[in-house]
Specification:
The protein has one domain. The chain has 8 helices and 2 strands. Strands 1-2 form a two-stranded antiparallel ribbon. About 5% of the residues have low confidence.
């Protein structure tokens, strides 16, 4: 079942997935591996993808950084045309929050890929986790108001953050948005 079907809509032909296919990222797992290679170690279930030399990783794992931006990777991970995966939704949220991403680009891609409700949900969660981060506020302002998806379709805020129950300051929850540790250079 596709993400679109889980959300009660119709999957469409995705220009972004056509692009990722042309550069060798044909399976959703290829997108996940690329996200791990770009610094999402938190989600590395593929072995030590980060230790692969760039030239040995192959086109199914590594796309040229100037060919596919982090914003495009983030939106490809949550394309409504792909099979439903909570893992990819969480990885996309992390990639959306990557350092250096432009809210305008993400909003444009979300509209083109018909994933505005998904990105809006992620941005709302980001705004709750990081209320002082202007990135989330700007992204929310650029996205149209959309009905909230069914509660069982998209992950809860706590699935996008790392949380502590005990800190040096004592007991208390501290949320940190999960992001890639390595980002693209402009």
């Amino acid at each position: 079942m596709t993400l679109a079907q889980r959300m009660g809509t119709t999957p469409h032909i995705s220009p972004l997935l056509m692009k990722t296919g042309r550069i060798g990222l044909k399976q959703p797992e290829d997108l996940e591996k690329l996200a791990v290679h770009r610094g999402l170690r938190y989600y590395d279930s593929y072995g030590d993808t980060m230790s692969l030399p760039h030239d040995q990783a192959g086109p199914s794992i590594i796309a040229k950084e100037d060919t596919l931006s982090n914003e495009e990777l983030a939106l490809a991970l949550i394309s409504p045309a792909t099979p439903y995966s909570l893992q990819r939704l969480r990885m996309s949220a992390a990639m959306i929050g990557a350092q250096g991403n432009k809210p305008e680009t993400i909003a444009f891609l979300a509209k083109r890929e018909r994933s505005e409700p998904i990105v809006r949900h992620i941005a709302q969660c980001g705004s709750q986790a990081e209320p002082n981060n202007p990135f989330w506020k700007k992204l929310l302002a650029l996205l149209p108001q959309t009905p909230a998806p069914a509660i069982d379709v998209l992950p809860h805020l706590t699935r996008f953050v790392a949380m502590t129950g005990l800190t040096r300051a004592g007991k208390g929850n501290r949320m940190q948005w999960i992001r890639p540790t390595r980002t693209l250079t402009p």
